[in-house]
Amino acid sequence: MDVLVGLLQLGFTEYEARAYVALLSNPGGTGYEVAKYSGIPRAKIYEVLGSLVARGVVSTSQSDGRALHHALDPESLLRRQVGQVERLRDDLVPVLSALAAQEVLPPLVTIKTYPNIIAGARDIVATARRQLFVSGWWNEVEAILAELTMARKRKVDTYVVVYGEAPPARPRWRHWYSHEIDNRRRISGPPWFIVAADHAEALIGEPTPGSRAVALRTRNRGVAIVASEYIKHDIFLLEASRIMDEKGINLNHDLAHLQSMWFGRRDSDLGGDGSDE
Amino acid sequence: MDVLVGLLQLGFTEYEARAYVALLSNPGGTGYEVAKYSGIPRAKIYEVLGSLVARGVVSTSQSDGRALHHALDPESLLRRQVGQVERLRDDLVPVLSALAAQEVLPPLVTIKTYPNIIAGARDIVATARRQLFVSGWWNEVEAILAELTMARKRKVDTYVVVYGEAPPARPRWRHWYSHEIDNRRRISGPPWFIVAADHAEALIGEPTPGSRAVALRTRNRGVAIVASEYIKHDIFLLEASRIMDEKGINLNHDLAHLQSMWFGRRDSDLGGDGSDE
DNA sequence: TCGTAGTGACTACCAAGGTAACTACTATTG
DNA sequence: CAATAGTAGTTACCTTGGTAGTCACTACGA
Q1: Residue B198 backbone zone (phi > 0: left; psi -120 to 50: alpha; other: beta)
Q2: DSSP string covering B19-63, please?
Q3: pLDDT digit string (tens) for A179-236?
Q4: How far apart are CA A53 and CA A56, in angstroms?
Q5: pLDDT (tens digit per residue) in B32-90
Q6: What is the DSSP string of B100-138?
Q7: What values do phi and psi take at B90, rounded to 5?
Q8: Residue of A23, A34, A96 to mutate, interface with B, max B Cβ within 10 Å
Q9: Contact partners, residue B210, CB within 8 Å, separation at least 6
């Protein structure tokens, strides 16, 4: 990640970003020096430093009658930004939620572009309460791994099926299943990505790397159930075939540990605190 | 907090904010309807909705060949924003910190405007490791209360002295001391706000409500020690006078000659009342 | 004279806000 | 049946403010 791009995303202008970086590596500079190191025209530098001072990102000190400038350390800068959005969230969410009207019947909504599909998947995982099913390729699963971990910490039953070559960073979760297929070509058509929560909400996506990525997201009950059941069947068959490979007989007994997918959590399954194995 | 202002702070344009709010309270609208509810000129509405769709804040569905629009729910929207800044932080801080050069000797830095003083105080509290001293009026102490709570959770020894009328939301901490004084007028001059951490960093501020607010922030060792010691002495005297009150010892008369340090030639009592725990 | 320090007056460009006028379709009603 | 009003969407153009970028100037000390 280019630092300048990152700072732009924090709302810095290009000059502000360049001045900040220049001040970081050359602390205590006069305006003139900052202009020299940053390549910002001298005619603009005081304006730029002024707006950074107003934002509290740069502070001044006096020495020999000259004004020196000092950059806020990066940790503090980013901590402030995070704190600001968090405070904004705490202020805004209740007001906005009060404004929001309920949709009469859940629409079948189209989501466009890859990052929006990932964001939608994160939403669903982050709001799941009891049961969560995920099926997709490692790239997409990895992108929502932080949220999946949080969900498991919240005691959400989380089932994940990952297609493709076994990834290096594969977490050791109880219900993590791998379809080890060479590459994205093996199974027909484009990649897919399915997230379903609580038999209530689902996202069925086609995370093509290009700009063609599209997904369906809905709280439509039928779709949500189909998505969940599809993944359940997939897992069931995967396990069945594995065990048949090993033994050959009496599948029912061997697959009993999967019954919780359909019948909810049983006492014997309450194996821990979100860190099984 | 006005919702529109809040959304602007999230990087929405005014039209985008108005369209989003209109869509929240009227879900599933055509572009035409959104324009009607939001007051955005029809000529602009598709452009605006388009950029919201591109950002994933609005999604579309089809019904009778018409494109309907649906707003992302506020919790998800704000969760995404928070996650985005957090990811930016994790990416950016290591790179920026690597760029940062150490200042040879800690400067005496001037901080301007009230919010920047508060932000600086938050920085210091958030990075304190062992010992923390805070002295100020309730307004300012309240503004950094969240960070103080975090510091206490990190096992930082936290001492707070609050001037002014006892606030309603006063936390019940072990080292929380109150100087109950009627109003900001009693002690001469403007309000003040002191934060000192680890005998290493200090902020000494003058949080005037207007634009005149100024503070000194520094890692200069001498200043940091003076600030810490000042607050320690203040607490010591406060406690001493409380305990003497309890035991019926009254030195007012014997120390009357010192009262002039604080009150000129008037003789009156110190406000210590022992409302700590 | 050169390097440091700071300022005023420009130009260029673009995103955002704002207006007017247009097409096309549907439903209602006199 | 034609006229009208409302819905749905589009093209063109204009204004404004902020950002980027240039040039030319003053002032000072070594």
Answers
A1: left
A2: HHHHHHHS-SB-HHHHHHHHT--HHHHHHHHHHHHHHTSEEEEEE
A3: 776 554 445 457 899 999 999 999 999 998 777 899 999 999 999 999 999 999 989 8
A4: 5
A5: 999 999 999 999 999 999 999 999 999 999 887 788 999 999 999 999 999 999 999 99
A6: PPPPSS--EEEEESHHHHHHHHHHHHHH--SEEEEEEEH
A7: -65, -35
A8: A96
A9: none
Quickly state the pLDDT bin for B244 (edges 50, 70, 90).
confident
Instruction: State the SS3 of B193-214.
Output: EEEEECCCEEEEEECCCCCCCE
How are the residues of chain B apportioned to helix, strand and coil, as percentages rounded to the nearest 5? 45, 20, 35
What domains appear along chain B, each with residue ranges and CATH number?
3-74 (1.10.10.10), 108-263 (3.30.870.10)
Nearest to A142 by CA among A161, A170, A165: A170
- Say yes or no for a CB contact (<8 Å) between A95 and B1: yes
Q: Say if residues A111 and A215 touch (Cβ distance below 8 Å).
A: yes
Closest CA to B92 of A56, A8, A39, A28: A8
Measure the N-to-C terminal CA separation of chain B; round to a whole number of Å.
35
Two structure tokens written together for A274: 């979100």
Number of H helices, E strands in chain A: 11, 9
**3-class state of residue A157 by DSSP:** strand
Nearest CB to B86 within list A1, A54, A82: A82
Q: What count of other Cβ atoms lies within 10 Å of the Cβ of residue B192?
A: 16
Q: How far apart are CA A107 and CA B72, in angstroms?
A: 12
For A47, A88, A142, A223, B139, the CA distances from A118, given in Å and listed in that order, are 39, 23, 10, 19, 41
Cβ-based neighbours of A136, under 8 Å, separated by 6 or more: A161, A162, A163, A191, A192, A193, A194, A195, A207
Tokens 């957090």 sit on residue: B86
Nucleotides of D under 7 A from a protein CB: 7-12, 18-24
DSSP letters spanning B219-250: --HHHHHHHHHHHHHHHHHHHHHHHHHHHT--
Q: How many CB pairs under 8 A join A and B?
A: 194
Confirm if A6 and A16 have CB atoms less than 8 A apart.
Answer: no
- Look up the ipTM and state it: 0.86
Task: Provide the pairing of β-strand A157-163 with A131-137.
Answer: parallel
CB distance A217–B100 less than 8 Å? Answer: no
CB burial of residue B213 (10 Å; 0-12, 13-18, 19+): buried
User: How many other CB atoms are there within 10 angstroms of residue A206's CB atom?
Assistant: 16
